[in-house]
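Hmm, how's this folded?
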Amino acid sequence: MSERLLVLVRHGQSEWNLKNLFTGWRDPDLTALGVEEAKKAGQRLKAEGYQFDLAFTSVLSRAQKTLDLALNELGQTDLPITRDLALNERDYGDLSGLNKDDARAKWGEEQVHVWRRSYDVPPPGGESLKDTVARTLPYYVTQILPKVLQGNRVLVAAHGNSLRALIMVLENHTPESIMKRELATGAPVIYRLNADSTVASKIDLAA
């Protein structure tokens, strides 16, 4: 029986996470804590006996480094890796690089909350989660899902919102409920899929 294993990991804490800045497509490095979170993700997966056939990540270094550190812990440093901007974080546009408190002072608490937590209202010059889904989901359906359904064990290291786009489909979320679905940094979520691409089982190693 083929495994049909899909594991999603949000990157470890970045320098801008720590500074409470909107990050989006900007490219800060991991913090020391983020490095440890990435290593711990690999250690958790190794402890549970997981190995992988291929991996996907974004073109942003915090996700790539998380993947590399996790694979090092797994002893799989030669794993084939595909990098694609379709898996990039949601683009925060004009908010990118701003402190979240400063943004609230400039545009108001309510407006910033709408940009952050509504499904389909984008910040100026940026993407809503709906836009991110429109970018990320087709890539998943055409590039990642077929590999999983062929029986490959696939690891995806990406970002809070690009992974939410995948989780929205995997876990049958509505536009309202997906906004409340939190993803801890460096905490693997493990899915085994049925032959029809639905989820047979799920394990959240953050729980």
